[in-house]
Amino acid sequence: MKREQKTLTNKGFSLVELIIVVAIMAVLIGVLAPQYLRYVEKSRLQKDNTSISEFANVLKMSAAEEAIVSKLASGGEVFTFNATDGKLVTTAATADLVNEIKLSMDPDDVKLTSNTYLKGGTLPTITLSADPTTKILRVTAVGWMESQTATPTTASNPKVF
Predict the structure, then answer these.
(1) Concatenated DSSP letters of 33-87
(2) pLDDT per residue over 23-60, tens digit each?
(3) Positive or negative, the Cα torsion across 135, 133, 98, 157?
(4) Labelling 149: which of 29, 70, 114, 131 has CA 20 to 30 A away?
């Protein structure tokens, strides 16, 4: 008989208890959401920097052929990113270099996703050049950002790969 009475009196949580739990959850979400968004942006920036670095390494390997090095020594190649979708754009790339790049990596796969680059106003520009006398290849990036709060690199202070 006592057992039946116990189940009848246990009706669940009161309205005040539920409101307190909801209020605590709202405060936690309000405090943790900005941290989560910063973490997501930091991981996107790290992914973008890794993609740029990988592309720079592919550029070095692809441009190592003698015919391509001699073409680069006369000018240079510039690779930029599109501001609307963050895709890599080859501006004046020779067909030989593009074909060599495609053997290792599809340039269409290199895409920026972080707001630091896309909404920050400065998109990285990757330049591939070769010294005419020594034929040494150099890959530099202008607009490279190490972190969300860093200022982008400039032409006088490029990131060298």
Answers:
(1) HHHHHHHHHHHHHHHHHHHHHHHHHHHHHHTTSHHHHHHHHHS-EEEEE-TTT-B
(2) 999 999 999 999 999 999 999 999 999 999 999 898 88
(3) positive
(4) 29
> Could you tell me which of 51, 54, 33 has the C-alpha nearest to residue 114?
51
For the chain, first and last CA: distance in Å?
81
> For residue 67, what are its two tokens?
């015919």
Neighbours of 126 (CB within 10 A): 26
**Taking a C-beta distance cutoff of 8 angstroms, is the pair 111, 88 a contact?**
yes
CA–CA dist 159, 161 (Å, integer): 7
Torsion of CA 125, 126, 132, 133, to 10 degrees: 120
What does pTM read for this prediction? 0.77
Question: Tell me, what DSSP letter sits at residue 90?
Answer: E
What are the residues whose beta carbons fall under 8 Å from the beta carbon of 138, sequence distance 6 or more? Answer: 128, 129, 130, 131, 160
Angle, nearest 10°, between helix axes 95-104 and 15-62? 130
